[in-house]
């Protein structure tokens, strides 16, 4: 089908701001209107997502839909300012865009929303606003809960990715619109952005527990507000897998869940593989809900998931062995609970401990966590967890006997922990590993919990040293099959840095065996498993991108045995890429460092420096952002810098210093 592409369509908002859209639609849509599929994100359609957008939206247009990519207010070529994630202004703008699309003569009045990460978030959030023209949503790698399950906090613990992600947006928000589209006003728009650009981490650190700031945009506050069908998609290497299971459990609209082995990627570009023909799968969804065609997609299992087989631990996989399985409903009657208990001799066993047995004592080294990988893998570097034997020396470890039969798990393991501590602020990390016959340990799931949130994430309170407490720690959902001869290992630690920011001072944790248990979601295979299959990806990538400078992606652990200094250094250099159809060269380089010295909890710091460059023959702009996060026992300290250059001359510079009290974190 012939496709018409409009590069810069301007959509007016009520306050006069114009958003920029790129639109792909069938050439004859003016005579034969089609439904519109909207993706609404801040990641610069002109350059950064251009190649990826073509694989989705051009394909949709070739198959009877209009694909629309809109830059959020204040990003890319859109006017206005972007001041935070998921502001009400952003959602109101999205609602207005949907209304505008439904009125176009080439649109039949029906609109769907698709998005990964940010676009998956606001697809759910706008669906909860119930715009009449929005008929269905596909949400990929997103969440229903902005506090409990996002890049900022996990289990009430501050994530290292909070700093990383804030720094990414600090850099994005410093970039200008393209003068080839905006003409001479581009410079004015750019300087407005530079003046308004604040390090978002400052705001995020002001909200350390679940308050109204995080409730806004969390659709879990009222699942019933979503009245259109939802397809929820993620991968086991992604940070947002759990939301798929929660939405299947709590939404009441027609819904489907799809979980593959992938990282934070659309499944047609999914890594680790196998990738799937995701465009074809979404077309069946859109045909069902936007064209009223019976595609039989709703006759298929509610949940389709890739259950992974054992694999040697590695920080990067091209493919994960396993198989597709299906569940007609979720929670599934085919998943039952098997409970294991910690025992003497580091055993994980079916029988609970006696009440009079002594507790297990734990105080992990501060450096435990250097091999944990990233909270959310982007498959853009060696960012998956390494062999867990590197971490288990500083942990409490409990292990089963070798399995005499395969064991398949699907869902969220739950650790019921009875404990006491010697400090008023503490955390715990729990890891579940698949231990092979040769002893290599592959982490299959984990969870962290701020123990000061024992009464709820909205009720942090001081722990009383020496007093007994009980908490429930739900580990991330998993789909994994343990083979005969392998063992399950539960590892507990009081530190997991830099994945999670550590407590203010060293903590001695006593785990009370009587009252501590691990509940496993054991799955029985069914005949539905044989009905789940996907074709391999089949699409063109029509945007020609030439790699002028090679990328460099490194994760390096540095240890100085003389000073006891430890550092995780992350280099994410995308090199220089020439996008030929817009005559533009872009360069992205980000350097991250997470440092500590021995068990000095006041030595912890994270630093991110990002360079961004755009150039063509007569135009060259560059920005540099730097964010440093430090802490003492009482407060976090944020130091940030922003510099911008045009044609080699610095045109903007600003520094920030903020001190933010710690509130049981």
From TrEMBL:
It holds the Pfam family PepX_C. SMART domains: PepX_C (SM00939). GO terms for molecular function: hydrolase activity. Residues 283-536 form the Xaa-Pro dipeptidyl-peptidase C-terminal domain. Keywords: Hydrolase. The keyword Hydrolase applies. This is CocE/NonD family hydrolase. It comes from Spiribacter insolitus.
């Amino acid at each position: 089908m012939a496709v018409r592409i409009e590069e810069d369509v301007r959509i007016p908002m009520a306050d006069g701001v114009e958003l920029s859209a790129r639109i792909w639609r069938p050439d004859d849509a003016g005579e034969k209107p089609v439904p519109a599929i909207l993706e609404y994100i801040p990641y610069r359609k002109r350059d950064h997502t251009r190649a990826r957008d073509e694989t989705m939206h051009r394909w949709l247009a070739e198959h009877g839909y209009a694909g629309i990519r809109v830059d959020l207010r204040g990003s890319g070529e859109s006017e206005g300012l972007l001041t935070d994630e998921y502001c009400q202004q952003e959602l109101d703008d999205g609602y207005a865009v949907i209304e505008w699309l439904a009125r176009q003569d080439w649109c039949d009045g029906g609109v769907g929303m698709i998005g990964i990460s940010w676009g998956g978030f606001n697809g759910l959030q706008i669906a909860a606003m119930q715009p009449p023209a929005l008929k269905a949503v596909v949400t990929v790698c997103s969440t229903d809960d902005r506090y409990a399950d996002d890049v900022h906090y996990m289990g009430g613990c501050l994530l290292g990715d909070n700093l990383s992600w804030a720094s990414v947006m600090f850099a994005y928000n410093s970039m200008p619109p393209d003068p080839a589209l905006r003409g001479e006003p581009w410079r004015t728009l750019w300087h407005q952005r530079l003046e308004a650009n604040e390090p978002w981490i400052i705001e995020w650190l002001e909200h350390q527990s679940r308050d109204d700031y995080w409730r806004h945009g969390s659709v879990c506050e009222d699942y019933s507000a979503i009245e259109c069908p939802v397809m929820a998609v993620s991968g086991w290497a992604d940070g947002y897998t759990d939301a798929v299971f929660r939405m299947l459990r709590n939404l009441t609209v027609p819904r489907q869940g799809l979980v593959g082995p992938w990282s934070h990627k659309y499944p047609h570009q999914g890594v680790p593989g196998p990738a799937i023909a995701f465009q074809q799968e979404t077309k069946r969804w859109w045909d069902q809900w936007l064209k009223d065609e019976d595609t039989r997609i709703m006759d298929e299992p509610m949940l389709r998931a890739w259950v992974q087989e054992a694999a040697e631990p590695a920080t990067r996989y091209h493919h994960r062995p396993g198989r597709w399985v299906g569940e007609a409903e979720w929670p599934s009657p085919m998943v039952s609970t098997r409970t294991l208990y910690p025992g003497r001799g580091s055993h994980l066993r079916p029988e609970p401990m006696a009440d009079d047995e002594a507790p297990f004592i734990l105080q992990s080294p501060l450096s435990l966590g250097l091999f944990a990988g990233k909270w959310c893998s982007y498959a853009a570097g060696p960012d998956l967890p390494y062999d867990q034997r590197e971490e288990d020396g500083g942990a409490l470890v409990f292990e089963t006997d070798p399995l005499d039969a395969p064991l398949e798990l699907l869902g969220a393991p739950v650790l019921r922990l009875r404990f006491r501590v010697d400090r008023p602020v503490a955390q715990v990390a729990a890891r579940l590993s698949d231990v092979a016959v040769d002893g290599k340990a592959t982490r299959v799931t984990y969870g962290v919990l701020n123990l000061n949130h024992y009464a709820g994430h909205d009720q942090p309170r001081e722990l009383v040293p020496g007093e007994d407490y009980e908490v429930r720690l739900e580990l991330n959902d998993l789909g994994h099959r343990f083979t005969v001869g392998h063992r399950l290992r539960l590892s507990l630690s009081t530190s997991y840095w830099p994945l999670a920011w550590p407590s203010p001072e060293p903590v001695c944790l006593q785990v009370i065996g009587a009252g501590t248990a691990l509940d496993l979601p054991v799955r029985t295979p069914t005949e539905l498993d044989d009905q789940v299959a996907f074709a391999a990806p089949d699409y063109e990538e029509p945007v020609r991108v030439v790699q002028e400078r090679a990328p460099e992606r490194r994760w390096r652990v540095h240890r100085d045995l003389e000073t006891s200094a430890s550092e995780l250094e992350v280099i994410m250099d995308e090199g220089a890429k020439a996008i030929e159809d817009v005559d533009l060269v872009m360069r992205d380089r980000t350097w991250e460092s997470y440092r500590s010295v021995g068990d000095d909890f006041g030595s912890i710091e994270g630093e991110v420096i990002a360079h961004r460059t755009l150039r063509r023959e007569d135009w060259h702009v560059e920005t540099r952002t730097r964010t440093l996060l430090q802490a003492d026992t009482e407060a976090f300290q944020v130091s940030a810098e922003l510099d911008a250059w045009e044609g080699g001359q610095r045109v903007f510079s600003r520094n920030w210093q903020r001190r933010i009290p710690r509130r049981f974190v």
